[in-house]
């Protein structure tokens, strides 16, 4: 019985050995399964005119700022305007006590009447002495004195008229009006305050807000490079009145109303080595306020034959160097470092690294690898979407 058990064990071991050998042979005979070829979509680059833009930092400024000041000394009786409101040129803002100035005007007018009476008397005497001197009834000296008195009386009248005019002006200055149209800020004095005593007391500030100015700065290095490219014929100049100016708000969105370039300063700031450029934007809703820091995208030239790629096609390595994936004629992927220029909408201008006809991967970048083959899918047709929507 022990011999039978031993034979049985030997048979079982032999069967296990044969089974494992057969299993190994079948596994090695199966062909390896190939990984599926990744699918991508590409964009074939074409030369086209591109605007060369610069994105510059700047600050919003009011085109006109007027500081309302008291031009006469007196006590403020009333603030007429509402703080933070829009005012027109000539609107009444403050009322200074006019009583002293009315009294000064009355006094000046009385002095003018007195001077007129004195001149009338001097004129009659001069006319009388003129007739008498011809008859030798008075001496020439007496006539000269009468004539001099008339001249002095004329001067006194002119002086009195000037005093009346000055008193009338001071009375008018007691009513403080807006020198320009714009938005007025908070009052810097209150009712009952004594203003204009030995100085022109500031009362409020008015700023014109529509249109609004934006001052930006650009380095002389960038401007020099731009001018060299223009002289070499690589770029075409954009006239200042045709330059496209876009304001970028804090949230990154573009201000809906386009601006225009007014001028470029003729002096370089020695502390920053930068030049100031001023642009103007419509501001009908008063969304842009002076003092705010913004970015401005300025079209300064046109590249007649340029290349651009979608922003989603740009990859960056660990050092931040931009690159794209290019598919060659054999459907093989290669990485291509590129030099980027400015942003135009959702695209990057490419300064170097690509050529017309290159097929740049724009979809499926996560599946495409350097040196591997890919399958290029056709781009979706917009017409088919439209037809489907129409149905």
From TrEMBL:
GO terms for CC?
plasma membrane
Give GO terms: molecular function aspect only. Answer: transmembrane transporter activity
Q: Which residues form a coiled coil?
A: 143-170
Q: Which domain of life is it from?
A: Bacteria
Q: Which residues form the Multidrug resistance protein MdtA-like barrel-sandwich hybrid domain?
A: 64-206
Keywords in alphabetical order, please: Coiled coil, Signal, Transport
Question: In what way does this protein cross or attach to the membrane?
Answer: Lipid-anchor
Query: What is this protein identified as?
Result: RND transporter
Q: Which organism is it from?
A: Pseudomonas parafulva
């Amino acid at each position: 019985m022990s011999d039978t058990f031993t034979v049985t064990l030997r048979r079982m071991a032999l069967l296990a050995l044969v089974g494992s050998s057969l299993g190994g042979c079948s596994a090695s005979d199966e062909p390896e399964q190939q990984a599926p070829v990744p699918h991508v979509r590409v964009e074939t680059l074409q030369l086209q005119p591109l605007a060369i833009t610069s994105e510059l930092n700047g600050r919003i400024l009011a085109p006109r700022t007027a500081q309302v000041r008291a031009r006469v000394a007196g006590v403020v009786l009333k603030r007429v305007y509402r703080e933070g409101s829009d005012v027109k040129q000539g609107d009444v803002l403050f009322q200074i006590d006019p009583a002293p100035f009315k009294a000064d005007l009355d006094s000046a007018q009385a002095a003018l009447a007195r001077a007129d009476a004195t001149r009338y008397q001097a004129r009659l005497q001069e006319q009388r002495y003129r007739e008498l001197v011809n008859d030798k009834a008075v001496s020439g000296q007496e006539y000269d004195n009468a004539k001099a008195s008339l001249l002095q009386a004329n001067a006194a009248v002119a002086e009195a008229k000037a005093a009346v005019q000055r008193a009338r002006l001071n009375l008018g200055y007691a009513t403080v009006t807006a020198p320009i149209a714009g938005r007025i800020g908070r009052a810097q004095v209150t009712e009952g305050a004594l203003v204009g005593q030995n100085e022109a007391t500031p009362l409020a500030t008015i700023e014109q807000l529509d249109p609004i100015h934006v001052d930006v700065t650009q380095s002389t290095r960038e401007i020099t490079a731009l001018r060299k490219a223009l002289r070499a014929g690589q770029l075409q100049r954009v006239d200042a009145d045709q330059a496209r100016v876009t304001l970028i708000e804090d949230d990154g969105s573009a201000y809906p109303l386009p601006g225009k370039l007014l001028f470029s300063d003729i002096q370089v700031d020695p502390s920053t080595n930068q030049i100031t450029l001023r642009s103007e934007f419509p501001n009908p809703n008063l969304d842009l306020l002076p003092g705010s820091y913004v970015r401005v995208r300025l079209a300064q030239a046109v590249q007649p034959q340029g290349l651009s790629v979608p922003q989603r096609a740009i990859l960056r390595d660990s050092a931040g160097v931009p690159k794209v994936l290019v598919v060659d004629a054999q459907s093989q992927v290669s990485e291509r470092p590129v030099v980027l220029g400015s942003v135009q909408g959702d695209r990057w201008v490419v300064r170097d690294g690509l050529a017309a006809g290159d097929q740049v991967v724009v979809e499926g970048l996560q599946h495409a690898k350097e040196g591997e083959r890919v399958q290029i899918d056709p781009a979706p047709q917009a017409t088919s979407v439209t037809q489907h929507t129409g149905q």
